[in-house]
Amino acid sequence: MNMNTSNWRTNVYIAKRIDVTKDSRGHQTPVYDTPIEFELNVQPMSESTRIELFGANAKKMYRAMALSKTLDINELDVVYLDGSSPDDESKNGANSNYVVRRVAKSNIATTYYFESIKG
User: In a designed cystine with 113, which of 15, 40, 81, 102 is the match (CB 3.0 to 4.6 A)?
Assistant: First the structure.
């Protein structure tokens, strides 16, 4: 079976978490850098795989692969998927709808797991 993985390649914006600030009540608010566009192989995760890897409380998830290189993407960075984009944001990260939940490095690829943070 020959799967054409180019069908899953998509441009994704990711905003790096650069700081956390506290308001007058002590609530923490993350601060994000300007979103950067990456071209990644992004695939939806099945419910059974999602539950097996992240537990029953995990929301909708995607898995993205980058072959032969490690990108500057870290856990807690935010991601724009499913039609979301950083266009017309009031502040960096405001339009994001996923968060980087895990980064798994191997010999030939790095896998990034994105979990929904909306709905």
Answer: 102
